[in-house]
């Protein structure tokens, strides 16, 4: 990376959001961009999460880009290895390699109001960009709770998203902290090899059967030979999930039948009434993400597994103490405690027009116009921003909708001509957020009686979209310039010609 390289667009992150943005930029005819990635390869969360049993809980043909169908998914629900390989394939197929900058973690992004551009400091040097597309994702920075005495634990400690493959769990006494989507995949994967497994469960999860199977050679060959069949399959998967949305967003009482199915699923594997009582949630199904597994409950019923129905409260040497006073001697601790979702660390590194960081602007809760633009941060967009998450479908659908919005945003800048920037009006951001939060009031995520990672520290749901994916696509089809302030360079700023010459100098290193 040149010391002061200038690009039209800087994309941050190379997971689904970042690679999707890069593909869309090329399809729009924009090649003056870079993708800044802090690691040494693409993949985002599917690179970082390599724990045993890691797989997606969304069907493969729906968890892929519509513009890059994969007829060769090996299973209806694909594992981490195949999803990561798919993203590498996307990078190669669409010619993204020349745009990738690995080991280029963003340290700081500062808006330059005079030149209407972002000044970016990375682990590989500095650059400037007219537009920043932040695609760091909400599931990128692991969260480990502050447990008294944890720093004195003599054994091995790691988070599920930073799995230590060099540490052999065979025969060890292992503590699994958490019962989320990662934990229910890890537990059955390591249970057969560890000496003893103690699961510290703060809140039990609702678990439904995982209807997974191998996709045979004939089925894959059909999808390759007749692409329409794969599109129909994807459309069917999408439609079923669209029909489910009303129960989550408007009529949570309709989820009672699903609860009974989940209870039957548990009863088939858990015969001990005391254990079944520990594992039965006291909140409405769907309030937290519904988890899918065929082997989680059977693993918990094995004789070398203990379930502690209380969160980890303290560590005393190699002894773990739960909030209810239960104790367990362990050799290793695995945290499946989620990520910094409502307090994304990237927000601390983005400095807007008024000199405040995005984290300071969002200290009372994340807000972004149509999930993309924050007031006071011109020409800065986020992919998978506030209130764009889903509780029952594929995030790739939401990402593609935001890519539509990004593409039109760049078109609007072209139409405006000259040096220009768009800054979301505070009143437009508030109006959008107020509508979202009003709709959120009757959703299962707000009324279901649970505490989840969808909620921020103040109890506001700043994570999930309270509607269908088709609704969101309509809302992000076009940029409404009435919702933005158009910024021009201030008096005395370098002219367009001088700015262009400065950009050329930055790229070539040659001065007149």
TrEMBL record:
The keyword ATP-binding does not apply. Its cofactor is FAD. The keyword Oxidoreductase applies. Keywords: FAD, Flavoprotein, Monooxygenase, NADP, Oxidoreductase. Residues 491-512 are annotated as: Disordered. SUPFAM superfamilies: FAD/NAD(P)-binding domain. Pfam families: FMO-like. Residues 493-512 have a biased composition (Low complexity). It comes from the Bacteria. One of its GO terms (molecular function) is N,N-dimethylaniline monooxygenase activity. Catalyzes a Baeyer-Villiger oxidation reaction, i.e. the insertion of an oxygen atom into a carbon-carbon bond adjacent to a carbonyl, which converts ketones to esters or lactones using NADPH and/or NADH as an electron donor. Thus, can convert bicyclo[3.2.0]hept-2-en-6-one into the oxidative lactone products 2-oxabicyclo[3.3.0]oct-6-en-3-one and 3-oxabicyclo[3.3.0]oct-6-en-2-one. Is also able to catalyze the sulfoxidation of methyl phenyl sulfide (thioanisole). Belongs to the FAD-binding monooxygenase family. This is Baeyer-Villiger monooxygenase. It comes from Streptomyces cyaneogriseus subsp. noncyanogenus.
